[in-house]
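DATA SHEET
Item: assembly model
Revision: 1
Owner: S.N.
Input lines:
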Amino acid sequence: MSKLPFRMTRRTFLQATAAGTALAAAGLAAGPRPAHAANVIKFGLIHPVTGFLQFSGTQCRYGALTAIEEINAAGGIKALDGATLEPVLGDAQSKAEVGAAEIEKFNEAGVAAIVGAYSSGISLATTQAAAKYGIPHVVDVGVNDKIVSRGLANTFRFGPGFGVITEAGVNGLIEINAAAGKPARTVVIVHENTTPFGSFMAELMKKGLEPAGFEVLDILPHPTPNKDFQNIALKIKEMNPDLIIPSHYYNENVLFLRTLQRQRIEPKAIYSVLGGASSQYRFVDEFPDAAQYVMDCNHWFDPRNPKAAALRAKTEAAGKSFSYEVFLAYTAVQFAADAMERAGSADRAAITEAMASSTWAGHFMPYGPTEMINGQNQGARPLITQVQGSAIEVVAPADYATAPAIFPRPA
Amino acid sequence: MSKRDRALGWTLLLGLLAAVPVFIQSGRWIDFLELTLFVAVMGQGWNILGGYGGQYSFGHALFFGTGAYIQALLQFKLGWSPWVTLWFAIAGAVLVGCAVGYLSFRYGLRGSYFALITLAFAEAFHVLARSLISVTEGGRGVQLPLNQDPGQAVASFQFTFANPFLQSYGFYYTVLFLFVLACAATWLMERSRFGAQLVAVRENEEAAEALGINAFRIKMGSICLSAAITASAGVYYVQKFLFVDPGIAYGPGKSVEALFAPIIGGLGTVLGPLLGSAFIHIVGETSKEAIGHFVGDRPGLDLILFGIMLLLVLGYMPRGLVGLLETAWMRLRADKDGPNA
């Protein structure tokens, strides 16, 4: 039997173990460090940057980091003598339990506020974990309304949730259809049913559309990920609806719309609600034919605001797509930074209070001045966009429209 | 390793785990230990069927998910106490285990065929959980109400808003208790006639049957015990995170976690799942910290490093970490006793 390269006796083993344990205990017993040292405020960013949500999580992280970079470049938090924000990054690995574990790290690191965590499932876990320590947590994208209806005083959402988005989607569709002489009556809803997002959406859309006179021919669910939409496309072809309403994540939305194109299924309109890809520049650039005339009720910026155009230019110069993840995470960080300015403190409770009473209006989203009720920004709402040529135009509501809707789409 | 050494080792380990609040106040590291023990419990469930019984399952999420869903649904739909629902959750998973075991073992499915049938059942339950919306809430998942009354923390089995001790250590002790139960059940099984017969079936089913062992009955017993232990991890998950959806419950992630821990730690050993889970989490955390420190923000690079280390362990330590520990211990003893001992 070969010998070990060093001679280990029971005594040396015990000595090494004791020394190791002492060192580890010294590290483990360390409590939360001060939130700001040397005029730096630690700021937690939790997103799924690996796993099946990796693309969206990375986009969110980019948006949030860009906001922090800009805030620091503009002189930091002025009410705190120009304190700079130091991002503390967390990867939820697309799993709720990992996201919650990262919040524990943030607490130990002494973060003053958190922005994240893209998906609803992860956000439910991270907001709950942050509530234990009273860390203000701004949800950037998660649209599940349960996130802000659990009575957690630390939880805020700057953007809209399911309820508002679906209502806007239904109302917008009714108006656009009425303005065109009601050419569309029959509808097929296609939605992902693996996560809360698609399932809630389908149910709420059906409830909203039927009283308005639309006939929902069928609701076709599919899992995420999904590699084949042939069967769903053939079913749709057979039913020949006037309208198709898809709700998916990015990859499935691209595949679905391309399958419709290949099968030559040409309804009067494709009207997505949180379509995943339907209002993404990346999709329009890569598959312009499949994207043409697709409408989407989704998170969108005020197209007339020059700050949005500047961020888009910066994002594209960095080789990134200017997607909803980028501008929602960017705005969520700005909202939190504004609360720090208002609070004049990096104290978690003071920031939470400032968020709850925020009237921030210096953003580029179509929300108006901020008004938080139970953690939800009351003015938050989606816009309705349509791919027209190589551009994504806002077609409703009228006060933000950059082009009229092309409805029904040309044959 | 002598019985005395083993007993001493286990006493030391469990004593250290029980005394954690004395020397660890860090929420981060408590959570780290919780996740380690959580995977160890799932791993122990898998180990009973796969490690001791030789029936490799690729779909243990089936039992985790069934336990989690029953725990969540009975509270959500019927308003039952979580302390009552947990028994139904475990019993439900055992029933599912019985059904899968009966269909598989009755028709003699073994090896890769058994692995595939478990994978297929997990996927079938995944589809059912998505499709039976009136029962399971479909893809929306089940979100339990969050208790914010510290006085109701124990009754609601939720410690997010409890007294400071329960808030910090409530779920840690919950999962530690489940881990101790799982280890005790495995240890007792290992020393029982049933355990010996299970190992005999693993080594050579035909020979075991020739000796009068009812292999079908033994394998059914092991799948039921395995399902019960794995379901208890599902109960813990739901009470901690208050949310379950089809992907979390029946997705492949939990099945992989359940089988990795005992394979790395040491198949068919009581300690293996804990060592394997600790290895996975320590290496995962260390590689993440090291990458962050030396290379900066490179998402996913830590997972690549982790994968390489995993391959090395699987390639060079066929008996897992338990085998490595035993070899090290024997060398230590040999050194102490001297060459002529």
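QC remark: Chain A touches chain B through 52 residues (CB under 8 Å).
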